[in-house]
């Protein structure tokens, strides 16, 4: 039940800024961001150590691009039996390989019907224009939308679940309070992401509080919860700021900058 807070400012010095809170089975191993994929030698992202895919990766090729994926959680939905379905973590990698002309239905072998439900977002630069797209697969229907300039929330929990629309509205309102348009995200120091980190500080969250940005536990899914988060900013000139936190409560002291070289 991941949550993404996304800010798109195409005319800004840093057009893309986002926070990705990752929720997963806490026993599922993962690797920290690195260049894990031979077919994408310039891509950096965290890797699912079991299946080899990713939830978020940044391709440092010119132009810089980013793709990210969350699951889609709706316990009320009737889903087909896909016990042998391929890992969804390859979808962001396919998006980065294809670039700004990526077409989910045409470019994914076997089509989306072989996958468990997901949300996939792609942020690609096509010359001087950013192309930001989101695909949502419910298990029976695929929805595609272009993401306009502004603030967005992408969340695993289906919008039809109780309280989810209110949760997203609250997160958007909190994100709108962040004033960072004049910030140099490449600057050193602890204050670069300070207000974003405040948004993600989950130390006061109570267990099973599903409206929170981070989840300590879920009664319906034992062993599942927040395992970490990422903060990413992409500059108009292609520079990338990438920070990670690998603690379940997203402790403000646990953020570390990912070397980009």
Describe this structure in words.
The protein contains 4 helices and 13 strands. Helices cover 12% and strands 33% of the residues. It has 261 residues and is mainly beta.
Coarse structural class: mainly beta
**CATH C-level label:** Alpha Beta
Sheet bearing the most strands, described? 7 strands, antiparallel
**Structural domains: how many:** 1
The H-level CATH homologous superfamily, spelled out, is Penicillin V Acylase, Chain A
> Strands across the major sheet, in which order?
3-4-5-6-7-8-9
Oligomerization state of this entry? single chain
CATH architecture heading = 4-Layer Sandwich
List unreliable stretches of 5+ residues.
Answer: none
Radius of gyration, whole Å: 17 Å
The shape, in one word, is globular
How far apart the termini lie comes to 31 Å
What is the arithmetic mean of pLDDT? 89
Percentage of residues in helical conformation: 10-25%
Strand content: 25-35%
> And the CATH topology?
Penicillin V Acylase, Chain A
User: What is the N-to-C succession of helices and strands?
Assistant: EEEEEEHHEEEEHHEEE
Question: What's the total count of β strands?
Answer: 13
Our count of helices gives 4
């Amino acid at each position: 039940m991941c949550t993404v807070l996304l800010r798109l400012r195409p005319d800004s010095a840093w057009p893309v800024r986002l926070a990705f809170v990752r929720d997963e089975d806490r026993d599922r191993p993962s690797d920290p961001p690195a260049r894990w994929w031979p077919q994408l030698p310039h891509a950096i992202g965290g890797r699912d150590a079991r299946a080899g895919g990713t939830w978020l990766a940044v391709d440092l090729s010119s132009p810089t691009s980013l793709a990210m994926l969350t699951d889609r959680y709706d316990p009320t939905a009737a889903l087909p039996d896909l016990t042998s379905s391929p890992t969804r973590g390859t979808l962001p990698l396919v998006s980065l390989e294809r670039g700004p002309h990526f077409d989910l239905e045409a470019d994914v072998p076997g089509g989306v019907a072989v996958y468990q439900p997901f949300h996939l977002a792609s942020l690609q630069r096509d010359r001087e224009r950013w192309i930001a797209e989101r695909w949502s697969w419910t298990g029976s229907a695929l929805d595609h939308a272009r993401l306009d300039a502004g603030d967005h929330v992408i969340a695993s929990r289906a919008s039809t679940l109780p309280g989810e629309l209110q949760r997203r509205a609250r997160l958007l309102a909190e994100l709108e309070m962040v004033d960072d348009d004049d910030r140099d995200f490449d600057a050193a120091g602890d204050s670069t992401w300070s207000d974003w980190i405040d948004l993600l500080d989950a130390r006061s969250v109570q267990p099973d509080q599903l409206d929170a940005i981070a989840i300590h536990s879920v009664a319906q899914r034992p062993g599942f919860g927040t395992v970490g988060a990422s903060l990413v900013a992409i500059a108009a000139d292609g520079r990338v700021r990438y920070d990670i936190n690998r603690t379940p409560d997203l402790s403000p002291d646990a953020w570390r900058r990912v070397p980009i070289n």
